[in-house]
């Protein structure tokens, strides 16, 4: 894996994950969405890795959920993480990929199934062109994906992950550390009712409002579920 770009997808088995969509659409529907989001996120990462001649791994927590994840995404290269801390999980995933010789690393979660593949490719381009780190910001104040040109645990430790303060905190830490940190065009994750409308726009082939105009990922499994 020496010098090649690497993608890491962080996930929990759908039956373990709890989402803020459950009170809105119900537990079973939220579980169904979590399953197809995971399948589409893996398909997205596989496509980007193939186009970039790179590698891709799925980092899952808890380790005991390996069978459920493997059933949903057969053939994926799975790496268990025993830590529950969001920051530490990302730090360890990045360290794992760099230890295997990755040239650049991009990490993402599985709640952005329509994230444009070309936007992730631009993230790798930013790292190759001199950025220490780069991100695809999320409309809710977080990040959809973060890329690193080298191990930078300082960008994970103590960060308020899964909050609207995340992007600002990473930006401030990068500035304090003197890092070249670049922000690409926005995309969105799927956490709230309004996000479902943005998701549908992407499935319809449209750029969701205030997001990158690049073509959204097809997200076939999600499209099939919602279309049904």
TrEMBL record:
Taxonomic lineage: Bacteria, Pseudomonadati, Pseudomonadota, Alphaproteobacteria, Acetobacterales
Originating species: Roseococcus pinisoli
Name of this protein: DUF2064 domain-containing protein
Matching Gene3D superfamilies: Spore Coat Polysaccharide Biosynthesis Protein SpsA, Chain A
PANTHER family assigned: GLYCOSYLTRANSFERASE, SLL1095 PROTEIN
């Amino acid at each position: 894996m020496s010098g090649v770009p690497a993608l890491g997808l962080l996930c929990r088995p759908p039956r373990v994950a709890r989402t803020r969509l459950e009170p809105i659409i119900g537990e079973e529907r939220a579980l169904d969405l979590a399953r197809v989001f995971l399948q589409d996120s893996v398909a997205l990462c596989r496509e980007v890795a193939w186009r970039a001649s790179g590698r891709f791994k799925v980092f899952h927590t808890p380790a005991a959920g390996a069978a459920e994840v493997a059933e949903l995404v057969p053939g994926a290269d799975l790496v268990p993480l025993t830590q529950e801390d969001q920051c530490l999980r990302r730090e360890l995933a990045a360290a794992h990929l760099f230890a295997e010789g990755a040239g650049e690393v991009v990490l993402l979660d599985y709640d952005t199934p329509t994230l444009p593949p070309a936007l992730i490719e631009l993230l790798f381009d930013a790292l190759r062109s001199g950025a220490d780190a780069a991100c695809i910001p999320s409309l809710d104040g977080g990040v959809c994906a973060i890329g690193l040109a080298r191990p930078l645990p300082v960008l994970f430790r103590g960060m308020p992950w899964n909050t609207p303060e995340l992007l600002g905190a990473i930006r401030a830490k990068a500035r304090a550390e003197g890092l070249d940190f670049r922000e690409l065009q926005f995309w969105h994750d799927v956490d709230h009712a309004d996000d479902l409308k943005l998701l549908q726009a992407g499935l319809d082939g449209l750029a969701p409002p205030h997001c990158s105009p690049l073509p959204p990922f097809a997200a076939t499994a999600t499209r099939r579920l919602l279309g049904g």
